[in-house]
Design a protein that fits this description.
Layout: H1 13-18, E1 20-26, E2 34-40
Antiparallel strand pairs: 1-2
């Protein structure tokens, strides 16, 4: 049995710039199928003790 279905490469620049990203990305190496993504960027402040 093979667990690997395929892969995809996505840069997160668009998510960082727009704040939200939704798309269906086809899987490389698969006969058929796509990965449905809905990504949302919420920045969180980093507090440092001085």
């Amino acid at each position: 049995m093979q667990d690997y279905m395929g892969g995809c490469i996505l840069t997160l620049t668009r998510v960082l710039m727009e704040g939200e990203y939704s798309d269906a990305i086809p899987l490389d190496g698969a006969k058929s199928g796509a990965l449905n993504l809905h990504l949302k960027w919420t920045p969180q402040p980093i507090y440092r003790d001085s």
